[in-house]
Structures are given as structure tokens and as C-alpha cells.
Amino acid sequence: MEDRQLSLSEVAGLMGVSDRTVRRWIKSGKLRAFKPGRDYRIPESAFRAFVKGSEISPKARNSSLEPSLFNGLEDEQR
Fold it and tell me: Whole-prediction pTM value?
């Protein structure tokens, strides 16, 4: 089965970082990629290994349902 190829922008979007940051990861050897032409291609398996083996993780989306330090503060002030 062939490994799906991700674009630099797709990886940046999944990680919540800029394209420039993904380029730095590639140039430093942290993220395996190849460049068949002008654009980088990142094998999905390389992306998964990068996420699994690093302290960097995809950014979570904020939700209004998540608890915060201020939940209930308005009720206490009444």
C-alpha cells in the first residue's frame, strides 16, 4: 500500500504552525520529506513518526465547553 503524501501546508495546518516552521523541521532533519520539484512532500508515515517521537503535538482546538479558571466566577460575585 502506498503512503499518502502530505503537502507542507497540510502539515502546517495540522500542527497549527507556519509553513516556515515546517521547513525548519525538514531542514534540521526532524521531519523526513522529499522535494520532487519545487514543493516538499511529506509521507504520512513520516508525519506520524514525527508527532509520536517529539514533544510537539497538533494544536487542540479551543472549545467553550472546556473548563477555565473563570468558570463560575460570575456566580460567586453575585
Answer: 0.67
Short-list 34, 27, 31, CA closest to 52: 31
The identity of residue 44, as a single letter, is E
Q: CA-CA distance, 57 to 59, in Å (whole number)?
A: 6
Could you give phi then psi for residue 72, rounded to 5 degrees? 85, -5
Q: Measured on CA atoms in the order 28, 29, 32, 36, is the torsion positive or negative? A: positive
Residues whose CB is less than 8 angstroms from the CB of residue 30 and which lie 6 or more positions away in sequence, other chains included:
50, 54
4-28 pLDDT, tens per residue? 999 999 999 999 999 999 999 999 9
